[in-house]
Specification:
The complex is a heterodimer of chains A (about 400) and B (about 400). Chain A has about 400 residues and is an alpha+beta fold. Chain A contains 14 helices and 17 strands. Classes of the chains: A alpha+beta (about 400), B alpha+beta (about 400).
C-alpha cells in the first residue's frame, strides 16, 4: 500500500515535470525591442530553439510592439507573425520556432486533398441556370482556356485566404479535389472556408468573430487618462490595457508609432472603443493611414498599404438570385423597341449583378476601405474588417437579400 | 596432332575460365573531408600502389580545390567514382598500367562495353491503350503541339533517357518496332533493365531502397555540436565522421560552398538525429540528398546520375478522374462554363502538374516523368515519400491500383 502511495506521488511529480517541459502559455511583452529579442525571449519561455535560415539579422532588427499576457502556445506563432511581418511556425516535432520568408513554402507544411465535389456540383448548377453566354472570340483571337468548377473554387480560395506576409498558398486542382500544401493553421482556414461555402446559411469566419469580440470588449471597457508626450504605441497599449485586450503592432505601423509622441488627454471617462476612435481621428488628421483588426483576441494595427484583414463573411444569395431573375423577367419589353430590354439575369451577368452593386456601394462607404468581394456560384463572400462586413450586410439587405433565419 | 589438340582444348578452357573468374577488387579507405583534390589522389594512389599521372592537370587550379568523400572499405572503382564526382574530373584507373590518370567528363566518352536489346511490347501496348483513352486533343481553338509525334516505343525511349539522364553521360537508345537497343556500360544497362521492369510492375528502385537504408543509418546517429554560426565544413564532418555508409559531396555543391568561411545555424543536438540536421542543412544550403551506387550523395545536379526513384501506377486514379471531369461539365457555351474532360485537361499531366506544384510548395525540386499511366518520381526518400502523400491526398490508392 505504501509502495502504491509512493508510486502515485512519483507519478504526479512526473506529470508536473512534463507540464513544465512544455509550457502551455507565455507572456509576450515587448515595447519597441527588436524582432530578434522578441523571438529569443519567446523561444526561451517556450523552451524552443529559433531557426531562421533564410532571414537576415537586418530583417529582424525592426522595433516590435506586442503585449499579450497568458498567450496560449497555439496562438504564439500567429502573433509573432504579425509582429515580425513574416511567417512563424512552431515545429513540435523538433521543438523549434521556425521563421521563414513571406510567400516561401511552409517549413512545417503537409499536403491535404479536399473533396469539393458538392461545391463543384453547385457551381455547375449555377452556371447552367445563370451563366452568361460566352462571347465568341474575335477574328484572330483564341478563346480563353476553360476552367472547371473546382479550378474556379481554387482561385477563390487563393484570393480569399491570401496573406501577403504569410506562407505560400498555391493549391492544385485534380478532378474535383483541391490539393493544398500548408501548415496546420492554413489547413484549418481552408477547411473553414469550404465549410462556410457549403453551409446553407453562410456565416462568418473565426477571424471575423475574433475581431467583433475584441471590438465588443473595447466598447464595454471605460478609459480616461492624461498622457503627455507619449509614444503613439504606448497610448494604444494603455487603451488596450484598460479593456483587458492584448495588442500587436505590425512592422510599418510599429516603426512610426514607436517614434511619434503625442499628448492624449481624456478627462471624462469614455469607452475604450471611443478612445481608439478618438486617437485614430487625431492620427488621421496628421495624415496617418492605418487599419484596425485583431488576431487571437489582440488588437492589430498596420499601415493601410498592407492588407491585414483575414476575416470574411459568406452570404448565400441563392434566394436573391431567384428574386432578381423574376424581376429581370418582368422588365422585359416587346422586342426591337428603343429603350427596350430583351435580356434576363443571365445576360446581365448572373451573380455579378450583385457583386458589382456591392462593390460600388462599399466604395461609397467610409467604413469599408479595402474590402474585397468574391462570388462562387450562389455565394458571395466579403473579406475585410467587421465594419466593412456590416456595411455589406446592409447593402445586401437593401438589394432584397434576407438574412438566414436562426 | 588431333589427339594433341584434343588434350590441349580442356587445358585452354580451364585457363580461360580461370582468367574470367572475377578477382576480388582491392578495397580502400577514402577519408577526404575538404581535402585538396591532388592530395586525395596522392593518397588514393598510395593505397592502391599505383602511379599518379596528372599529365596536363599538373599544377592546375582544379587540383587545388577541395573534395569531400568519406568512404571506408570501398572497392577502388567505387572510390574512383566518388572522387571523380566530388572533384569534377574523371579519375581513370588502369589496372594494367597500374596508373591513375584524369580526364574531363565531357571529353571522349568512355566506349560502351555492352549492347543490349529490350522487348517492350507489353509497355508499348499499355501506352497505346492510355493514348486511345486519355491522349491530348484539341482544346477550344488551341491545338495540341503535334510537331513531334513519337511512336509508343520512341516515347518510352525518351522517358527512359529523361529519367536516367542517359544522353548526358553517353549515347542514347534506339527505338525500332517494339524494341529498345542500348550500347552502354554494364551499370547503365542494369539501370535501364531495372527501370523497364519497374514500369511494368511499379515499385521502388534499388537505389531508393539503398537511400532508405542510408537515411535510417543517419537517423541512428546523434551528437552534440552547437554554437553560434558554425562552419559548414565542421558541421558536415561532425554529421558524417561516425557514419558507416559511404558519403560524398558532389562537385556541384563543392563549387557553391566555401569550406573556410561559409557558416550555418544548424546545430547538432542529442535530442535529434543527424538525419534531421542533414535535412535542415540541405534546406539552408540549398542542396539535395540521394543515394548513388550505395553512397549517400549531397548534390545540386538536378538528379543527374540518380537511379533513385519510384514508379507509381495511376491508372485507377485516372479512371476516377475521368468520371469527375465528366461531372464538372456545364451546358452549352456559357461564360465560366466548362466543356472539357480529362483528355482535354492533358490526361496524366493533370496528376503530374499537381505533383510538381505541391512538391515545389514543400520546397522540393524533383524530376517527374510520366509514361502512359505510369508516373516516375526521381529523388531521395524525402521526395518520393512526399509524392506518395500527395498522390494519396489526390485519391490514389495503392491497394486499388491494378497489379
Amino acid at each position: 500500500m505504501r509502495t502504491l502511495a509512493v508510486l502515485a506521488i512519483l507519478g504526479a511529480l512526473a506529470i508536473c515535470t512534463t507540464a513544465q517541459d512544455a509550457p502551455s502559455t507565455v507572456d509576450m511583452t515587448q515595447y519597441g525591442g527588436s524582432g530578434q529579442e522578441l523571438l529569443a525571449v519567446t523561444a526561451e519561455s517556450l523552451e524552443l530553439k529559433v531557426t531562421s535560415p533564410l532571414i537576415s539579422e537586418d530583417d529582424l532588427s525592426g522595433p516590435c510592439w506586442i503585449i499579450s499576457r497568458g498567450t496560449p502556445r497555439a496562438n504564439v506563432s500567429e502573433l509573432l507573425s504579425v509582429a515580425l511581418g513574416c511567417p512563424v511556425a512552431i515545429d513540435e516535432a523538433t521543438n523549434r520556432l521556425l521563421v521563414s520568408l513571406p510567400q516561401a513554402s511552409a517549413p512545417t507544411g503537409t499536403v491535404k486533398g479536399y473533396d469539393v465535389s458538392v461545391l463543384a456540383g453547385r457551381f455547375v448548377e449555377y452556371v447552367n441556370s445563370y451563366g452568361q453566354t460566352r462571347a465568341k472570340p474575335g477574328p484572330g483571337e483564341n478563346a480563353g482556356r476553360e476552367q472547371t468548377a473546382a479550378q474556379h473554387l481554387a482561385d477563390l480560395l487563393s484570393d480569399l485566404l491570401f496573406e501577403s506576409r504569410g506562407a505560400l498558398f498555391d493549391p492544385s486542382v485534380v478532378g474535383d479535389r483541391v490539393l493544398v500544401t500548408a501548415d496546420v493553421r492554413s489547413h484549418a482556414r481552408v477547411r473553414e472556408a469550404l465549410d462556410l461555402l457549403m453551409s446553407e446559411a453562410g456565416g462568418e469566419s473565426a477571424a471575423m468573430k475574433d475581431e467583433r469580440a475584441v471590438a465588443d470588449k473595447l466598447k464595454q471597457a471605460k478609459f480616461s487618462g492624461e498622457l503627455e508626450g507619449t509614444p503613439v504605441a504606448s497610448v494604444i497599449a494603455a487603451i488596450c490595457d484598460a479593456a483587458g485586450v492584448g495588442m500587436v503592432l505590425a512592422p510599418v505601423f510599429a516603426e512610426s508609432a514607436g517614434d511619434s509622441h503625442i499628448d492624449f488627454s481624456v478627462e471624462e471617462e469614455i469607452t475604450a472603443w471611443q478612445a481608439v476612435e478618438l486617437l485614430f481621428h487625431r492620427l488621421e488628421e496628421e495624415d496617418w493611414s492605418f487599419d484596425f483588426t485583431s488576431r487571437c483576441g489582440a488588437v492589430v494595427i498596420e499601415n493601410t498599404a498592407h492588407d491585414i484583414h483575414i476575416g470574411y463573411r459568406v452570404y448565400d444569395v441563392g434566394g436573391l438570385l431567384k428574386k432578381l431573375n423574376a424581376s429581370y423577367q418582368r422588365q422585359k419589353t416587346a422586342p426591337g423597341k428603343a429603350d427596350g430590354f430583351e435580356g434576363d439575369l443571365r445576360d446581365a451577368g448572373g451573380v455579378d449583378v450583385i457583386v458589382d452593386a456591392l462593390e460600388t456601394q462599399l466604395e461609397a462607404s467610409d467604413r469599408a476601405f479595402g474590402a474585397d468581394v468574391y462570388a462562387y456560384a450562389g455565394r458571395v463572400v466579403v473579406r475585410g474588417g467587421h465594419r466593412a462586413v456590416d456595411a455589406a450586410t446592409s447593402i445586401l439587405e437593401e438589394m432584397g437579400w434576407e438574412p438566414p433565419k436562426d | 596432332m588431333r589427339r594433341f589438340l584434343l588434350c590441349l582444348a580442356p587445358i585452354l578452357l580451364v585457363c580461360v575460365n580461370a582468367g574470367a573468374e572475377p578477382k576480388e577488387e582491392r578495397k580502400v579507405n577514402c577519408v577526404y573531408p575538404g581535402e585538396v583534390f591532388q592530395n586525395a589522389l596522392g593518397d588514393f594512389a598510395t593505397q592502391l600502389g599505383y602511379t599518379l599521372e596528372l599529365g596536363e592537370y599538373e599544377d592546375t587550379w582544379e587540383l587545388e580545390q577541395p573534395i569531400w568523400v568519406h568512404a571506408k572499405g570501398v572497392p577502388a572503382t567505387r572510390a574512383a567514382e566518388m572522387i571523380s564526382a566530388s572533384g569534377g574530373l574523371r579519375v581513370d584507373l588502369s589496372a594494367t598500367a597500374r596508373t591513375i590518370s584524369l580526364s574531363e567528363f565531357d571529353d571522349d566518352r568512355l566506349p560502351a562495353t555492352e549492347v543490349r536489346s529490350f522487348k517492350v511490347e507489353k509497355l508499348v501496348r499499355e501506352f497505346l491503350g492510355y493514348q486511345k483513352r486519355y491522349g491530348r486533343v484539341r482544346v477550344g481553338e488551341e491545338a495540341p503541339d503535334l510537331t513531334y509525334r513519337p511512336s509508343g516505343t520512341e516515347e518510352l525511349r525518351d522517358a527512359v533517357e529523361e529519367i536516367l539522364r542517359l544522353t548526358e553521360t553517353g549515347g542514347g537508345g534506339s527505338a525500332l518496332g517494339m524494341r529498345l537497343v542500348y550500347s552502354r556500360d554494364a551499370t547503365d544497362i542494369a539501370k535501364i533493365a531495372e527501370l523497364l521492369k519497374l514500369l511494368e510492375a511499379p515499385g521502388e528502385s534499388e537505389a531508393l531502397r539503398q537511400d532508405r537504408d542510408n537515411r535510417a543509418h543517419m537517423q541512428s546517429l546523434r551528437s552534440e555540436f552547437a554554437g553560434a554560426d558554425q562552419l559548414v565544413s565542421a558541421v558536415l564532418w561532425q554529421l558524417f565522421k561516425d557514419a558507416r555508409i559511404p558519403v560524398y559531396i558532389d562537385h556541384s555543391v563543392i563549387e557553391a560552398l566555401d569550406f573556410e568561411y561559409d557558416t550555418t545555424r544548424v546545430p547538432l543536438r542529442k535530442d535529434r538525429t543527424h538525419y534531421d540536421a542533414l535535412v535542415e542543412l540541405a534546406r539552408e544550403q540549398e542542396f539535395s540528398v540521394d543515394s548513388v551506387n550505395g553512397a549517400l550523395r549531397l548534390h545540386s545536379l538536378d538528379w543527374m546520375g540518380s537511379a533513385s526513384y519510384r514508379v507509381y501506377d495511376v491508372s485507377g486514379l485516372l479512371a476516377e478522374l475521368e468520371t469527375e471531369y465528366a461531372a464538372l461539365k456545364t451546358d452549352g457555351s456559357l461564360e465560366e462554363g466548362y466543356r472539357g474532360d480529362l483528355r482535354t485537361e492533358g490526361g496524366v499531366e493533370v496528376v503530374v502538374n499537381a505533383l510538381e506544384q505541391q512538391l515545389d510548395n514543400a520546397g522540393h525540386a524533383p524530376l517527374i516523368r510520366a509514361y502512359g499511366s505510369r508516373i516516375v518520381v526521381v529523388g531521395g526518400i524525402d521526395i518520393v515519400d512526399r509524392a506518395g502523400s500527395i498522390l494519396t491526398a489526390l485519391g490514389w490508392n495503392e491497394g486499388k491500383e491494378p497489379k
